[in-house]
Known about the structure:
Blueprint: E1 7-11, H1 15-26, E2 30-34, H2 38-47, E3 52-54, H3 57-62, E4 66-71, H4 78-87, E5 91-95, H5 102-115, E6 119-122, H6 129-139, E7 146-156, H7 165-181, E8 185-194, E9 204-211, E10 215-222, E11 224-236, E12 239-244, E13 252-256, H8 275-289, H9 297-315
Helix pairs in contact: 1-8, 4-5, 5-9, 6-7, 7-9
Amino acid sequence: MSVNKTKVSVLGCGVWGRNLVRNFYNLEALYSVCDMDTDTLCAISSQYNGVKCVSDFDDILKMEEIKGVVIATPSHTHYKLVKKALVAGKNVYVEKPIATSSYEAQELNEIAEEKGLVLMVGHLLLYHPAVTRLKSLIKEGVLGDIKYVQSDRLNVNFFRNDRSVMWDLTPHDLSMSAYVLDKKPLSVQSAVGCSVNNDGIIDISHIDINFEDDVLVHLSDSWIHPVKRVVLIVRGTRATAVLDDTLSENKLVVYDNFSQEKRIVETPDYIEIEPLKLECQHFLSCIENGIKPRSDGLNGYEVVKILEDAEKIMLGNKYSKISDIKLVSSRTKQE
């Protein structure tokens, strides 16, 4: 295998950041990593031979060898870090969400466009082979006309290092729903949430969104669910698809709406490749070929705009007090 000419640096080497480090290293594209935790840097240095480890982000931006910066820090830090990298002339891959306000997301898009840089958002499920297969089934008309989508992403998160479970998990569900439907989200019909510690940080959220062609999408996310559940249900006039990402195999099954026994497709075929590897490859390809990513900055903006509207409904009069929320101290993103 030839050495990849496009070199990147990963900022934030927490649980999820290390997955990015592993993938870009295996793709022979990892030049350096950056984290404030010296123990983390030492661990990476011993595991990945030849990778430069630094604690100052400014040092990363000064490295001419680096063409792309990969940002895997808590969501409330994304805007400032992405902007700094773009202004420095670096292509950027940022974990979802791109920012925590539509104004910020729009500004980042404008900077990337003006400088001719790649701005890609880590909407991982747009690169999931089973999700892509589901999208093709919908396009082929196997399910009929789509009427309803439900996505449940429930798990336990002890870190709570975002201001809301909605900003941490819902970008996955929203971007995935828009991708498989090939439709845009139009408006938020309802949004409710619960802060179990009464500290202003939402741990459970339920959001109903109107999509084009009168498709209703319901998104449920939780940080306090003791039993992990990651299930997408797409209901059409003919059949219903169920994608259970907690299963090791047969993740995608399509059921006939009019029979309890018959399944139109038992287990639709798709290639088993790690979605994150495909996503990292896509980022490198976009840099090398000067093309827009599947999950580009505009895609990131559309997700943020809906989440912003949902949060206003969810918090009501408390929305103006978001800045008062005290986040758990954390340097890196935990997913």
